[in-house]
Design goal:
The structure holds two protein chains of two kinds. Chain A has one domain. Chain A is mostly helical. A two-stranded antiparallel sheet of chain A has the order 1-2. The longest helix of chain A has 32 residues. By secondary structure, chain B is of the alpha/beta class. Chain B has two domains: 213 residues, Rossmann fold, CATH 3.40.50; 61 residues, Alpha-Beta Plaits. Helices cover 37% and strands 27% of the residues of chain B. The two termini of chain B are 38 Å apart. The chains are: A mainly alpha, B alpha/beta. At the A-B interface, helix 1 and helix 4 of A face strand 1, helix 2, strand 6 and helix 3 of B.
């Protein structure tokens, strides 16, 4: 128990370091993190929404809104834990400096993941504000649950990307990650259209990734509907988080501290 | 209790043995230097001491405790200046110290006090709010030293603290390290500047190929191995064999490195006069240094 407390204290110290840096240039970060989802919202909403009108009895823009929240959390966490974390780990050698203090590799990795989750939570929360202002969201009772969900999903995705960063040889590697992994997730996770439109094998295959689950939960919290998939989603995300965090810690330790 | 003690300490990377069965003990308050060429195993040794690298075998106690078992607690009392610059480039000079203090759980008011004190100590108070990119190499190294002192360490470890710095910056750092020595902080450093080791270290360990070849106080080692003085003979290209032939008559103890002949003797004055009679005009008669000792050892091991 004491160990766990020390771990979270250490992680929080590294989280604070990232938060301090973020505060000194938050404007550019915020613009980047919410600019893209807004672009999609208006572009696709006006373009495709004009042709489709309704999905499952819900106007198209409102239907895609929860998926966009999940996408915002995913993108922010992924960027932070790929380019951001890689820069700190490899280019700037920040981790090496920190490891000369009482902090250990595991503290730094946990801090980095929690920071990625924080960025994801911030992006999705800002998007939620915008959606509310546009009248696309008004189920206020859902707000705390949505924020908790995005924090959990952000943690899972940050941990997942941290594993990728731990084995990445260069920045170029992340190009593969984004085009071959993140883009398919954005397309096939039920953000823009119901996955029921896809062949069953394809939509089931994508359920091994966290994103479709996050979208199901968010859509339930936005619009209600079937409760089974959201519950499965919560269980999956909650189960994945500790496993991926553990794996990220192992991989980063292996990279930074050559075994004897 | 020794500040650091090692017995049969080993570290390999795959099949490469970076440190082979090494033993040493470092006393509290002394300045101990690891000397040697690149690849000698100096950095590997000190990275094991501050817990950055687990050892492959042997014993290693830091402040009386096994570093690999009690890492975070021991690290709380160590300050590290590593060879590569790993200052936090996203933060200002002062923020570097305050953020580092937080990793040690130093309360903010205390951290601010120590940061101000340390910035004055390394003469960076005027740069407190500057971004790292605006600092010269020497300033960054000084900041790294200030950062390593933020937790009031009883053991300060420096991996090549002045490599790549100009003489002025180097002397400023030496003065600061001498001040720390007077405060009885145990200092361990690695260097390949012999002058630095002679200037700062109470004792040195000369390493090569992962082993400690010699250990002792610098002056003592030099006198024992070389003598007090050295005569250097700068020989013209192609004339080395003839020069060696001539020198052999008057001095048996010599080394050749490139175009220079080094002659070692207990009676260098006499030797220098005799050498003057030879044709070579470029003669230097000077005090023996660690560098001589080192070249002699290196020459010997390379010949093996």
């Amino acid at each position: 128990m004491n160990n766990l407390k020390a771990r979270f204290t250490g992680a929080f110290r590294f989280w604070q370091r990232n938060a301090d840096v973020f505060r000194s240039h938050y404007l550019s970060s915020v613009v980047g993190n919410i600019g893209e989802p807004l672009l999609y919202l208006f572009g696709l909403g006006a373009g495709i929404g004009g042709m489709i009108e309704k999905v499952d009895g819900i106007p198209y823009l409102q239907w895609i809104a929860p998926g966009m929240m999940a996408a915002a959390a995913m993108n922010a966490a992924a960027f932070e834990c790929t380019f951001g974390a890689y820069t700190r780990m490899v280019e700037q050698k920040v981790y090496e400096g920190v490891l000369a203090t009482p902090l250990e590799v595991e503290d730094v990795v946990l801090g980095e993941i929690l920071w990625g989750a924080t960025k994801g939570l911030m992006s999705s929360a800002i998007l939620l504000l915008v959606l509310s202002a546009l009248g696309l969201f008004d189920r206020w009772a859902s707000v705390p649950f949505l924020l908790i969900e995005m924090a959990l999903f952000g943690t899972v995705f940050a941990a997942l990307t941290m594993c990728v960063t731990a084995v990445s040889k260069s920045y170029e590697f992340f190009n593969y990650f984004f085009t071959l992994f993140l883009t398919p997730l954005l397309v096939f996770s039920g953000i823009w259209f119901p996955v029921a439109r896809l062949p069953a094998w394809l939509s089931s295959f994508f359920l091994i990734f966290p994103t479709p689950h996050a979208v199901n939960i968010a859509r339930y919290l936005f619009h209600g509907g079937g409760v089974i998939m959201p519950i499965i989603g919560i269980l999956c995300l909650a189960a994945c988080a500790p496993v991926l965090i553990w794996l990220a810690m192992r991989l980063v330790r292996r990279r930074l501290i050559p075994a004897p | 209790m020794d500040a650091v003690s090692a017995k049969g300490l080993r570290r390999s990377f795959g099949t490469f043995e970076a440190v082979k069965e090494t033993g040493f003990s470092i006393r509290p308050g002394e300045c101990y230097g690891f000397l040697g060429p690149n690849g000698a195993g100096k950095s590997t040794t000190i990275r094991m001491i501050h817990g950055m690298l687990p050892r492959s075998g042997g014993e290693l106690n830091v402040m009386g405790r096994d570093i690999d078992l009690d890492r975070p607690a021991i690290k709380a009392h160590i300050g590290v200046v590593s060879q590569e610059n790993n200052l936090d480039r996203d933060l200002t000079v002062r923020q570097n110290l305050l953020t580092y203090a937080r990793y040690f759980e130093i309360p903010p008011p205390e951290a601010r006090r120590r940061a101000a004190e340390l910035l004055a100590f390394v003469q960076l108070d005027a740069k407190a709010d500057a971004r790292l990119a605006t600092l010269s190499g020497g300033m960054q190294r000084r900041l790294a030293i200030a950062r390593a002192l933020i937790n009031n360490p009883s053991l300060l470890i420096l991996d090549e603290p002045t490599t790549g710095l100009d003489p002025q910056a180097r002397h400023l750092i030496w003065r600061r390290l001498n001040m720390l020595k007077r405060q009885r902080i145990t200092i361990i450093l690695t260097t390949h500047y012999m002058e630095e080791a002679e200037h700062l270290c109470d004792r040195v360990a000369i390493m090569n190929g992962g082993e400690i070849l010699l250990e002792g106080a610098p002056r003592e080692l030099i006198t024992r191995q070389i003598g007090e003085e050295v005569v250097e003979l700068h020989v013209e290209e192609g004339k080395m064999p003839a020069a060696i032939e001539a020198v052999r008559q008057i001095c048996e103890n010599y080394d050749v490195h490139g175009e220079t002949l080094y002659l070692y003797s207990r009676e260098c004055k006499k030797l220098a006069q005799e050498v003057m009679r030879l044709e070579h005009r470029m003669i230097v008669h000077r005090r023996a240094t660690l560098e001589d000792l080192f070249l002699k050892l290196a020459g010997r091991t390379l010949n093996e």
